[in-house]
């Protein structure tokens, strides 16, 4: 490379690496853990693990049969008590009045499960060990063929607050998880709703702290990002990118202090909301065809003028999403169509991620070979440090995937290949296979 070309390339690489590192460090300030203890100085109260119907505030839990079917996304929400109207595009809406914090926390834990025989037991054990809340646990068996229903039924015989719900066949126009979650919401008894994936496990104070966080922050939908447990090399290469991309590229300020739909983000493994907000947003029925509720559900809430937020749940929840490289690839490919795999976002993100995470390492390798003049060595070293800084911090805080960290440039390349593969498949009208089901993908 000529000196001017080399200079432009290295400065671009350094600039991109500096940008993602600064974004990461700034976003860490906003990526808070759930608060400890009950809010407003409330005394800590111990609750029985059995479902306490006598403590149930019936006026807070409107039966879903009395809730009208969610309006179309373009309609206005009817007037209701609020803290002030605001504009979101061309739709003027009003946010529901936040639920007041109370010492008694009645929570409906809603778990969709399809062929989760190996995972559902540990999750139920962790939820049943929860302290500081009175909870019901509803598990919807989504036509499992591995005995998931028998395991849950055994738990329900031992624990009266565990309910097994048998899912009905998925109707046309729905994806399996969204329909399962919609059915669960219809059956929930309490006002506080917590949706959990079957591969999550909670600490004893997780539900109390998470619900307190949602109530204190006065948000309608709160999403927690659990600690990601990774074992195989395939998991270590790709799963940690969840936190990396979230903290490097999501504008947390816009996400937290505006209702911009483009700033919506969440993690489908761990959602908290209320019956009122769920009904006003349309809940999972408003994203019935989606395969990526982590992004689409917060967007649905924001379209209706509701407030969403996320938090760092790594100290109260753990998740092992996938167990092999093939499963990890398929899962990320499924999600890509509603994430980066769209125009013009995809080429922009490709260029930025290559410059920020891959090119510094290429420059470092080219430096001793004489392809890059030694005059640029300090800039190359700085770019390498900045390109690895976010991933090293992710390892320390979230996943401990040190092998994946070392191979971070390869991880980024694999991630981009997945995104472009998803885009190509989408433009060709090819569907997605997930959980033994086939889904069509819109080409728009």
Your description of this structure?
With 444 residues, the chain is of the alpha/beta class. It has 2 domains: 3-27 and 338-439, no CATH class; 39-324, Spore Coat Polysaccharide Biosynthesis Protein SpsA, Chain A, CATH 3.90.550.10. The chain is 43% helix and 15% strand. It has 15 helices and 12 strands. The strands form 3 sheets. An 8-stranded mixed sheet has the order 5-4-3-6-9-8-10-7, sandwiched between helices. A two-stranded antiparallel ribbon has the order 1-2. Strand 4 (134-141), helix 3 (148-158) and strand 5 (162-166) form a beta-alpha-beta unit. Helix 12 (345-366) packs antiparallel against helix 15. It is globular. The two termini are 40 Å apart.
Brief summary of the model shown:
With 444 residues, this protein is of the alpha/beta class.
């Amino acid at each position: 490379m000529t000196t001017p070309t080399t200079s432009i390339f290295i400065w671009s690489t350094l600039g991109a690496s500096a940008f993602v590192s600064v974004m990461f460090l700034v976003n860490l300030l906003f990526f808070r853990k759930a608060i400890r203890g009950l809010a407003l100085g409330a005394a800590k109260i111990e609750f029985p693990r059995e479902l306490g119907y006598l403590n149930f505030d019936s006026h807070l839990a409107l039966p879903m049969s009395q809730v009208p079917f969610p309006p179309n996304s373009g309609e206005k929400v009817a007037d209701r008590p609020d803290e002030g109207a605001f504009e979101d595009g061309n739709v003027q809406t009003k946010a529901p009045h936040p639920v007041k914090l109370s010492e008694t926390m009645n929570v409906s834990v809603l778990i969709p499960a399809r062929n989760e025989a190996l995972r559902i037991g540990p999750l139920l054990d962790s939820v049943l060990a929860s302290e500081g809340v009175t909870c019901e646990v509803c598990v919807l068996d989504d036509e499992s063929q591995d005995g998931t229903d028998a395991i849950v039924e055994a738990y329900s015989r031992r624990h009266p607050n565990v309910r097994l719900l048998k899912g009905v066949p998925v109707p046309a126009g729905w994806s399996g998880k969204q329909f399962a979650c919609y059915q669960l919401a219809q059956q929930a008894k309490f006002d506080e709703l917590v949706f959990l994936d079957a591969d999550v496990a909670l600490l004893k104070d997780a539900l109390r702290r998470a619900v307190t966080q949602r109530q204190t922050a006065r948000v309608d939908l709160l999403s927690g990002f659990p600690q990601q447990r990774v074992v195989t090399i395939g998991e270590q290469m790709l799963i940690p990118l969840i936190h990396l991309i979230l903290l490097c590229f999501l504008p947390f300020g816009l996400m937290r202090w505006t209702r911009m739909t483009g700033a919506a983000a969440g993690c489908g493994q761990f959602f908290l909301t209320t019956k009122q907000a769920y009904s006003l947003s349309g809940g999972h029925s408003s994203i019935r065809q989606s395969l990526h509720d982590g992004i689409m559900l917060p967007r649905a809430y924001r379209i209706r003028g509701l407030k969403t937020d996320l938090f760092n749940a790594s100290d109260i929840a753990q998740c092992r999403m996938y167990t092999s490289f093939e499963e990890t690839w398929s899962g990320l490919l499924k999600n890509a169509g509603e994430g980066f795999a769209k125009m013009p976002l995809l080429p922009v993100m490709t260029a930025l991620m290559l410059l920020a995470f891959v090119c510094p390492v290429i420059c470092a390798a080219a430096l001793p070979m004489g392809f890059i003049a030694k005059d640029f060595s300090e800039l190359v070293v700085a770019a390498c440090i900045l390109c690895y800084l976010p991933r090293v911090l992710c390892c320390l805080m979230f996943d401990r995937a040190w092998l994946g960290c070392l191979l971070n440039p390869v991880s980024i390349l694999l991630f981009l290949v997945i995104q472009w593969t998803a885009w190509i498949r989408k433009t060709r009208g090819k569907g997605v296979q997930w959980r033994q089901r086939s889904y069509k993908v819109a080409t728009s």
